[in-house]
Design a protein that fits this description.
With 466 residues, the chain is α/β, with parallel strands linked by helices. Helices cover 32% and strands 16% of the residues. It has helices at 15-18, 31-38, 48-51, 59-67, 71-79, 85-91, 113-126, 150-161, 178-181, 190-202, 219-224, 255-263, 289-300, 321-330, 398-401, 433-436, 441-462, and strands spanning 142-146, 165-169, 206-208, 229-232, 238-239, 252-254, 281-285, 305-309, 333-335, 338-345, 351-364, 370-374, 380-383, 386-389, 393-394, 428-430. Helix 4 packs antiparallel against helix 5. Bound molecules: flavin-adenine dinucleotide and iron/sulfur cluster.
Amino acid sequence: MNLSKQKVVMPTVDPQIRIKNFEEVSLGYDTDDAILEANRCLECKHKPCVAACPVGIDIPGFIHQIKAGKFEKAYQLILRDSVLPAVCGRVCPQEVQCESVCVRSIKGEAVAIGRLERFAADMHYLKDNNLEENSIKKNKIKVAIAGSGPAGLSCASQLLNLGYDVTIYESLHEAGGVLVYGIPEFRLPKSVVKQEIEQSIKQGATLKTSMIIGQTLYIDELFEQGFEAVFLGTGAGLPKFLNIKGEGLNGVYSANEFLTRINLMKAYNEEQATPIYKGEIVGIVGGGNVAIDSARSALRLGAKEVHLIYRRSLEELPARSEEVEHAIEEGIIFDILTHPVEIMGDEKGFVKKIKCIKMELGEKDSSGRRRPSAIKDSEFEMNLDVLVVAIGTTPNPLISQNTEQLKINNWGGLIVEKDTGLTTKEYVYAGGDVVTGSATVILAMGAGKKAANAIDQKLKIKHKNI
Ligand code: FAD
Ligand code: SF4
């Protein structure tokens, strides 16, 4: 037993070196560190960490295997409940999920569950023969999935395990959703995402890219083609804007566009043709993971100063705490309790400065965070040459507009039954960001898995217990 109150430290690249490139910042545990950290786990009988994991991973079980040096067994145990352990080990907000209830956190830091999950997955992928075929008996019933992000992949994997014939339709030319076009390389290397997606596809799913469900192919056409159920895991890719004067100026980006150019289109690589305004002074509006990722990306593109402009205080920042710490180490300037009210440009139409107003916090709102309100006569101006708006996203209305019976709520989320993910259209299920709005990888995966089980129940009844 390791009685240390602190987690074993995970090495990271020095901030002054890492801000000059897009390589991964956190380096992961080596074998000795992983076993040392695993030995902090008490293997509690009541397993509070498992209950707090949205996909119910057997956490003490896999940590037990790491303690015993059986790393592949640890990985296989995680894989029973999660198709993306190398991804989740890196990006899950463990501090508000499994680690938040870890018994070790009562008198010190929680067990580093995420780091251990990442370790087990990374060890698996180090092996040569890492793509395993699925030997499950097929039932020949076809299910279509729209979207290849965490929700779609998790739904696909669960359906494949249950014997279904699964086809995933993805509108982009590459699978992975936000994992490939949103979260930057320095936090989640695309090679890691690729190997986990390949592993899921190798289970037996057919992947069809550059196919927009609701446009290239309508949902009713999928049923006509013999699919018996459809799962929509199409995410929330439509950016919200500030709706203030000057938002159309050159150099003003939505975070979606900014990060897609950088991640999917590799704008940071001089050999790629993707254009991007780099900016010497860059402002990012927002305080979530998307805002922090945009800020750290702007720094790596060569900005001299990056300001994160956030209308609440540091305590309310919704971003993952490790990313906030890394951003502070890297020199991102946090302009808290500040909100832009106007964007100003030069005679050529390029952004030159913004006008902001100072904010103060009042009572808690429905999100449980204190509501910000503007302080009268507190406006001030800030010079900058790129502004990135990262204040949230909503689902693209394409599918709901083009599919009869599919109903959405007042902010554009698909309406589904809580326990099954069934939409208002028979045999059509949905989960992930398209239902909840922008949330987390693991919640999207949990929703995909839940819908897969519900689809299985429904189709079993239809086919009289196939
Ligand atoms: P997505 O990942 O958005 O995948 C949806 C897929 O559907 C996409 O590939 C899209 O191209 C495709 N699609 C859309 N419309 C159609 C259509 N009509 N037909 C076919 N395909 C379609 N979460 C964390 O847990 N930790 C983090 O650190 C974190 N950081 C983030 C950083 C950024 C920059 C962003 C943007 C998000 C971050 N998130 C993070 C949130 C997390 O990535 C999402 O909650 C998660 O990816 C949602 O999964 P999803 O499968 O519902 O949707
Ligand atoms: Fe281990 Fe913490 Fe889970 Fe207990 S709560 S089993 S100590 S990880």
